[in-house]
């Protein structure tokens, strides 16, 4: 009999949609956040060279020193903050880093505050630590930026952690420095640890990105190469830990994951050190797709009244169409061959929406727009 924890772990609807969509030919996939770009060439070359050189034994559980130095330099170069390599633990993806941070922070029965909407998997991470999910609503009129008062309303002595995410999935919202600083203050006043998921950093179009590390050392940052460098299948991430948590997180890493693959770490280091120009080009292409979709959403009347400032997602308000978000997603898939994720997967605050991912090619984004144009034109004439 599976445990209560296992039974309560919900599926990830985007993957369910992907499974269904993959059974059909010619579908434009906008349901998953899977970048269509090949990684920076330097990353592939470095990983292949490391593999050929026999770099395939267990590595240090904390991560290879030269990669941790590259990550430390990245924080200095990008945000002007000093993050000693000793505080960085390399993991097989940012998801394991988040799991470790959650397990290191939350005791059974304690609350963890998430925004609503949030990344669909977050509640399941809280469940693995036997914590309780508490939500702070986001408002489209604020561009889905976190509302500090909404956090203050739900944070109390039972709160172990607040989980922040900027640029955010599923909204694309970027949290301003002032708001981050206010949330850090709230965390300090209430002894609540901040877990900051910064996996979409590097993918902000208009807004300035801030790391929580600019305002405190007393927070976890979870990050990785999946989204920024199009390296989702490499499984490489890291946790920057508050000083007093480093050894605890390392002990859990030693036992549970042992280490991230060393040749993958060599590739990640090359991406971080040499991928800046690659990233600048990719970001411009995402911006172009974002603009195409935002224009189309306005034309369709699905406009949510905000423009995503980062990541590669847009929420479409489909509340004026017949049926709920699941029905609309079905119609888009069945009648237009366009796969999108129903909003409820991301919390009750996204009930009226579909999430469109523009991590797919620009050509595909144009094709999806044409197909939905045709679908809606047909619906109004019949
Ligand atoms: C907000 C957010 N955090 C973390 C992840 C997982 O990233 P990784 O591939 O580094 O585990 C995702 C993947 O979609 C995400 O959207």
UniProtKB/TrEMBL annotation:
Belongs to the class-I pyridoxal-phosphate-dependent aminotransferase family. Its EC number is 2.6.1.-. Its cofactor is pyridoxal 5'-phosphate. Residues 27-372 form the Aminotransferase class I/classII large domain. PANTHER family: AMINOTRANSFERASE, ASPARTATE AMINOTRANSFERASE. Gene3D superfamilies: Type I PLP-dependent aspartate aminotransferase-like (Major domain) (3.40.640.10). One of its GO terms (molecular function) is transaminase activity. CDD domains: AAT_like. It is an enzyme of class 2 (transferase). It comes from Halobacterium bonnevillei. Keywords: Aminotransferase, Pyridoxal phosphate, Transferase. This is Aminotransferase. One of its GO terms (biological process) is amino acid metabolic process. It comes from the Archaea. Homodimer. InterPro entries: Aminotransferase_I/II_large, AspAT/PAT-like, NHTrfase_class1_PyrdxlP-BS, PyrdxlP-dep_Trfase, PyrdxlP-dep_Trfase_major.
């Amino acid at each position: 009999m599976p445990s209560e924890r296992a039974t309560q772990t919900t599926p990830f609807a985007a993957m369910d949609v992907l499974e269904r969509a993959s059974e059909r030919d010619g579908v434009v996939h906008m349901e998953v956040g899977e970048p269509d770009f090949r990684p920076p060439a330097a990353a592939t070359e470095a990983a292949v060279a490391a593999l050929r050189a026999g770099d395939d034994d267990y590595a240090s559980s904390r991560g290879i020193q030269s990669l941790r130095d590259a990550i430390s330099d990245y924080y200095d170069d990008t945000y002007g903050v000093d993050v000693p390599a000793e505080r960085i633990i390399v993991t097989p993806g940012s998801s394991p880093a988040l799991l470790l941070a959650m397990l290191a922070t939350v005791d059974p029965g304690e609350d963890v505050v998430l925004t609503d909407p949030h990344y669909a998997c977050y509640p399941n991470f809280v469940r693995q630590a036997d914590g309780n999910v508490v939500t702070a609503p986001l408002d489209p009129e604020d561009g889905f930026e976190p509302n500090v008062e909404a956090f203050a309303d739900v944070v109390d002595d039972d709160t172990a952690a607040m989980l922040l995410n900027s640029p955010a999935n599923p909204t694309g919202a970027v949290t301003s420095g002032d708001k981050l600083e206010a949330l850090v203050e709230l965390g300090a006043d209430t002894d609540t640890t901040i877990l900051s998921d910064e996996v979409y950093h590097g993918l902000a179009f208009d807004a300035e990105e801030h790391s929580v590390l600019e305002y405190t050392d007393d927070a976890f940052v979870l990050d990785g190469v999946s989204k920024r460098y199009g390296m989702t299948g490499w499984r490489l991430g890291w946790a920057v830990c508050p000083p007093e948590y480093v050894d605890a997180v390392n002990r859990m890493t030693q036992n549970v994951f042992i280490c991230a693959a060393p040749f993958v770490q060599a590739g990640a280091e090359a991406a971080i050190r040499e991928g800046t120009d690659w990233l600048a080009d990719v970001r411009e292409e995402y911006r172009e797709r974002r603009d195409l979709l935002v224009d189309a959403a306005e034309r369709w009347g699905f406009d949510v009244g905000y423009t995503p400032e980062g990541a590669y997602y847009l929420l479409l308000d489909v509340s004026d169409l017949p049926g709920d978000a699941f029905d609309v997603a079905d119609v888009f898939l069945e009648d237009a061959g366009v796969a999108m994720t129903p909003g409820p997967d991301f919390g009750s605050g996204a009930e009226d929406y579909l999430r469109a991912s523009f991590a797919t090619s620009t050509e595909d984004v144009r094709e999806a727009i044409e197909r939905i144009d045709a679908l809606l034109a047909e619906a109004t004439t019949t």
